[in-house]
Automatic annotation (TrEMBL):
It comes from Chelonoidis abingdonii. Pfam families: Filamin, Glyco_transf_90. This is Protein O-glucosyltransferase 3. It catalyses: L-seryl-[EGF-like domain protein] + UDP-alpha-D-xylose = 3-O-(beta-D-xylosyl)-L-seryl-[EGF-like domain protein] + UDP + H(+); L-seryl-[EGF-like domain protein] + UDP-alpha-D-glucose = 3-O-(beta-D-glucosyl)-L-seryl-[EGF-like domain protein] + UDP + H(+). One of its GO terms (cellular component) is endomembrane system.
Amino acid sequence: QFGTLIFYIVYFVKEVELYFETPVSAEKSLVWGPGLVAELTLPVRYFYIQAVSAAGQNFTRSPPGTVHFKVGIKALSPKEVIGIHIPNLMDRNDGSFLIQYRMYGSVNKGLKIEVLYGNEHVAQSPYILKGPVYHEYCECPEEDSQTWQNILSCPSQEPQVTKDFSSFPIINLQQMLHEVPARFGQTGGAIVHYTVLNNHIYRRSLGKYTDFKMFSDEMLLSLARKVHLPDVEFYLNVGDWPMEHRTANHTPGPIPIISWCGSVDSRDVVLPTYDITHSTLETLRGVTNDLLSIQGNTGPFWHNKTERAFFRGRDSREERLQLVQLSKENPELLDAGITGYFFFRDKEKELGKAQLMGFFDFFKYKYQVNVDGTVAAYRFPYLMLGDSLVLKQTSQYYEHFYSGLKPWKHYVPIKRSLDDLLEKIKWAKVSVVTNKVKRALNVTCIFQKYAKHQASQPEIRDGMELVPQPDDNTSICNCHRKKPLREDL
């Protein structure tokens, strides 16, 4: 019954490809990525290597043999000594490799990056990054925001951003100043009011449940260290549910509350989730799961994965309980378990409690079931970066990247009731949807667009406090950026 979908489907019926005598060509192999751009400061810089044969064909599995790719990174000047953490190359199991490095200091002269296959330089190696090259905690913003946008290639049209701002041709800051506290800032609220002025961050909390402001503070401070942000004043919802449910037909109309999750019946402006931003900023430091590490920990090759669908999670939605019941009745198709009970504690004795598992172990299974939590399940982007097939519950909620996804191309849709889940798992055993989207959203671009819609100048309001940049006395930071000439100087 799914025969009409064959143009999205690849049958995994062939065995492992034979590479026995196929040599890797260091000269023809490819190296690319933002970690080779000196001007782009990231918490963790990264780039990719694609193994290519002497015949010019990309490897689609890990090259055989005992010769491996190696990467060395050091300061160009022997007088500049800094710490650089370079973990092992991550094999993505598709013929490509991911290289990460985190700097614990800045260099004025620049970096030299050598990429070797055995003793041969790969592609255009060595790569010279002319300095200065700054580390994550160096407060040295690029004064010309257009330069930053050019480096990151801000798209002229981002579908989700365009849709989000379509309801707000003009952002009336005075209206919001009076209306937001009254509508959303009650005792049980989760709104944080921010003003960015002269690249300094100010905020005040509206409501009791605003502890997650530590993540939004972290994001804004990191951006302000890298680029001179536009002057903006906005309200961020740090709770789970989207807030603004007025439509353009309402009088007064909707106001642009910024949230981490959107829904079909709300008008919130959607940012990447706190989980994505925090894990990105803390990559190779305080977190184990991030959007880079997933790519190198996708489990066994497809033919060695367990032939069942998998789910682990809290009891934050009733369908998750249904999922566990289905698993009990159909263990040959589905392995689902609840790891913590909070909403349905009376069900623990009946359904049992599953042990916690490391996220990388999820990818030992061929199929991943993604079911909403309180809102959209924030693990979805991580599942999409693995090489298991994702079966996603139909949902009214969405994250910032959903607009770029197509059902049956990037995931298999399942009904909200889960009535068709078992049928879809059986179908997946003979077919696999393969094309996956790996999208990133430049948060700076959103604030640039927001600033253009403001009808007045942002202000530091009563009750706001300055959010200071963190001290990092262990890392050297001497700012050498040239500030642009201004007409008023």
